[in-house]
Design goal:
Length: 351
């Protein structure tokens, strides 16, 4: 009898000795804050007596233990790596947060928590669905909006003549150097993409701005002389679309409207004024000196500003304030026919 009991004890010990052992603990700061559209790397330590499948997933839940409340919704943010056997092995897992994942601030009565376990269908004996810390609580993760913003500082609406250029003032914040997109759209609603028409025009620039907070700067858009004027549109208007985002900067996923009301600034394209709409300058007021390749100004009281246009109507030079200016050097302009315009007067000259 004793011999049989001893044999049974040996058998039980043998069974116990081959039972797989698994544990996992979370080593990163808690809570974790991550920007929507970016990725986050988590540190953990695990022990496994055999190769084991793992599951790392973000859940939306109303309970710190995830499954102890009324809500436990697994998001699409999940990774299922296979881990080698080992004891107190330190590892990392990277989770890519979609740009369209609802922000934590938009949740009501729930929060995001990181679920981690060493268990999978391929490892049925790794049944311990262990929480990541000794308190039985899964780590919290806070998903925030991208640290990018842009606001429009110029007058609204903006009026510019076809063939001219316009400079817009804006203020932005960016946590990294980021490409931008400024484009004129023809749309039927100020939000551009909320209606039935949203046609991007060929007027587009994509400069890169450097990282900074509340940086005030400008962007210049050249309006083609053949762009249909605003008066010719039917049921639509031109709006200036601006965002800090591009294919080169997927982390800058915020397609931020330029104003707090979610509306893009309107731009009015007016027709180019012909010389018949102006009178000519008296030669004693303004003339072109071929020798010095300069416009000579003899009356700064009458001439407040000057714009120079080429033969196709494109503005190529501008002096906003000619005060204390007696001549304007135009030697850098290609030779050809030009028109100098100020208020209601003009001067044709050959460079």
């Amino acid at each position: 009898m004793i011999k049989k009991l001893f044999s049974l004890l040996l058998c039980l010990c043998s069974i116990f000795s081959v039972t797989a052992q698994y544990s996992i603990s979370y080593d990163s700061a808690d809570p974790v804050t991550v920007v929507a559209g970016q990725s986050i790397t988590l540190n953990y330590t695990y022990s496994a007596s055999m190769e084991v499948g793992a599951q790392f997933q973000i859940f939306e839940t109303d309970n710190s233990g995830i499954f102890g409340g009324a809500t436990a919704i697994g998001t699409a943010v999940a990774e299922f790596p296979t881990l080698d056997a080992g004891t107190d092995v330190m590892g990392t897992i990277t989770l890519n947060i979609p740009a369209n994942l609802p922000l934590s601030s938009s949740l009501s009565g729930t929060e995001y928590r990181i679920f981690g376990k060493l268990s999978s269908e391929a490892n049925s004996d790794a049944t311990a669905d262990v929480t990541w810390d000794t308190g039985g609580v899964y780590p919290s993760i806070i998903v925030t909006s991208p640290p990018y913003s842009i606001t429009y500082d110029s007058a609204n609406p903006v009026t510019v003549a076809a063939g001219e250029s316009i400079t817009l003032n804006y203020t932005y914040t960016a946590s990294m150097d980021v490409a931008t997109q400024f484009q004129i759209f023809e749309a039927d609603v100020p939000g551009i993409f909320g209606g039935t028409t949203a046609n991007g025009t060929a007027v587009i620039v994509t400069p890169t701005v450097v990282a900074g907070t509340d940086i005030s700067t400008t962007v210049t858009l050249d309006i083609p002389s053949d762009l249909p004027i605003s008066a010719s549109l039917s049921g639509t208007k031109y709006y200036i679309f601006g965002k800090l985002s591009s294919a080169d900067n997927p982390d800058a996923s915020s397609d931020a409207d330029w104003s707090v009301s979610g509306e893009y600034p309107e731009i009015t394209i007016s027709p180019v004024l012909s010389t018949s709409d102006f009178t000519t300058f008296d030669r004693d007021k303004l003339y072109f000196n071929n020798t010095s390749a300069s416009l000579v100004i003899n009356d700064v009281n009458e001439i407040k500003s000057l714009s120079i246009y080429n033969i196709i109507g494109k503005k190529v030079y501008e002096v906003e304030d000619v005060k204390n200016t007696t001549n304007i050097n135009l030697s850098t302009l290609p030779k050809g026919l030009y028109i100098a315009r100020s208020d209601s007067k003009f001067l044709k000259f050959i460079r």
